[in-house]
Automatic annotation (TrEMBL), chains A, B:
Pfam family, one: PDH_C
Key words of the record: Oxidoreductase
Domain of life: Bacteria
Domain (Prephenate/arogenate dehydrogenase) ranges: 6-288
InterPro entries: 6-PGluconate_DH-like_C_sf (IPR008927), NAD(P)-bd_dom_sf (IPR036291), PDH_C (IPR046825), PDH_N (IPR046826), Preph/Arog_dehydrog (IPR050812), Prephen_DH (IPR003099)
GO molecular function annotations of the record: NAD+ binding; prephenate dehydrogenase (NAD+) activity; prephenate dehydrogenase (NADP+) activity
Protein name stated in the entry: Prephenate dehydrogenase
Coiled-coil parts of chain: none
GO terms classed as biological process: tyrosine biosynthetic process
Key word Magnesium present: no
SUPFAM superfamilies recorded: 6-phosphogluconate dehydrogenase C-terminal domain-like (SSF48179), NAD(P)-binding Rossmann-fold domains (SSF51735)
Length: 288, 288
């Protein structure tokens, strides 16, 4: 059974944080959300849209009295945020983040919170939209989504259980991994595809023919490149924070691509078909 | 206004050809479809599903008496098919293909049909599904789809107009390009993404961790890799037929990727953000 929280402090009223606030209120797990965003106009908009109930003037003010604290800021801002709110990360409060990388977040928590980092549960809901901003917040974003928690050996068991129950109550599927495993897996299934999609779209631009190219693009292009529309700030931080793992995955991709290039160059239809069939069978069998 | 055809000869009763037969019959543009597939069981299934009306025992039999002939075979089989049916490609018949590459198809037509290649209109509807086979044929597949016609300077104008009218009557958006332009554009917006998606999926496979990786894959992975489930025979032929153009586009991608790698390696957040923003803005503005 998930706990009920009288007050949630939300730091970062964007798509991810806003969606969580809406979902928790709709599920009756949170009574009141006090929200803070670095940009006052975002905080005001979140209030107008009913995503948060009270506008806080600072991250500290958002956390005062909260039983649940959620950091929904770009991952690079995690350390700074923890520094500001460290006094509120306490045994009777569940503190989580929503960041897409986890080793850097765990490090930042340990550095800024010290011993009290044990009350913080690093969380990454694998969900999102190609549009950012609180105006796209959606109470159903996490329903059916995969959520990875990456507690350290020091993390308090009861906090992990509380976090697990919270996400399950929203209809998410919870996985528990180490931060290292998380970053390695996500580099493969999320960060590398984003990097490829960004680089691919840019490779089409900047020439006279770009417009004609894009006019003839069809459904394959649409799906393949959808993630290239991702938020620049968020993905900048993710690609930087996890660059070592991503570079490793990119090397694997290049090796795989070279197999295709060799078969194409040699005109080896059988080898090429076998390579495509391997991918096609694996992708056809996958379902989320 | 689109012409009406009493009889359509369909060679290749798969997803693409079957969908066209269904669409033309539903639109009242074709009365009877005589179909042939290399595999007799496919031809029989197409008849049972009502995609074709009459099973032909050979490609020639499918074409005898047809006013509209459609080749819907893997592109590498185009030459051989034209050789078999060359006597039926005549001034009073509209002959089209549906292949994803066009320079090789035009060459095969000129070689096998000689002077009568002028009655053949090379066509490529940019549509498809991640599943192949006549059982997935869909009368609405081409509605709203982009269709590229690549007539040569020799192609009869009235045949191009007939082909154009036919596709427009199905709700498709028709573009006319040279075969070279087509192959260059499609290498960029379709063939390269397929190659990347195939190679990417294969790069995740074959290790103990593959299963765990795929279990944690989310909506980004789903969309990015959807086209990796494409038909192996079809894509083998496309990647081989258009390998020169694809190799050129791949080089552009590698250059673009290197810009990201440099920024990531240098930890240059501003440069990285600018690169991502360029892609994100372009992709956000695109719509099909």
């Amino acid at each position: 059974m998930a706990m009920m929280y009288n007050q949630m402090g939300l730091i970062g009223c964007g798509l991810m944080g806003g969606s969580l606030a809406l979902a928790l209120k709709r599920a009756g797990l949170v009574k009141q959300v006090v929200g803070y965003s670095k940009s006052p106009s975002t905080t005001a908009k979140a209030r107008q849209l009913g995503v948060i109930d009270v506008e806080a003037k600072s991250a500290m003010q958002a956390c005062a009295g909260a039983e649940l604290i959620v950091l929904a800021v770009p991952v690079a801002a995690t350390g700074e945020t923890f520094k500001t709110i460290r006094q509120f990360v306490q045994p009777d409060v569940l503190t989580m983040d929503l960041g897409s990388t986890k080793q850097d977040v765990v490090q930042a928590a340990e550095k800024q919170l010290g011993w009290n980092a044990q009350y913080f549960v690093p969380a990454h809901p694998i969900a999102g939209k190609e549009v950012a901003g609180v105006e796209h917040a959606d109470a159903t974003l996490y329903h059916g989504a995969k959520v990875v928690l990456t507690p350290t050996p020091a993390t308090a068991i009861d906090k992990v259980e509380q976090a697990q129950a919270l996400w399950k109550a929203l209809g998410s599927h919870v996985f528990i991994l180490s931060a290292l495993e998380h970053d390695s897996v996500l580099a493969a299934v999320s960060h590398l595809p984003h990097l490829l999609a960004f680089a691919y779209v840019n490779s089409l631009l900047g020439r006279d023919e770009s417009e004609r190219l894009l006019r003839l693009a069809g459904p394959g292009f649409r799906d393949f490149s959808r993630i290239a529309a991702g938020d620049a700030t968020l993905w900048r931080d993710v690609l930087l924070a996890n660059r070592v793992e991503i570079a490793g995955r990119l090397r694997e991709l290049v090796l795989s691509l070279q197999q295709f290039q060799r078969a194409m160059h040699a005109g080896d239809a059988d080898a090429l078909e076998a390579l495509i069939r391997k991918a096609s069978v694996a992708r056809s069998q996958w379902h989320d």
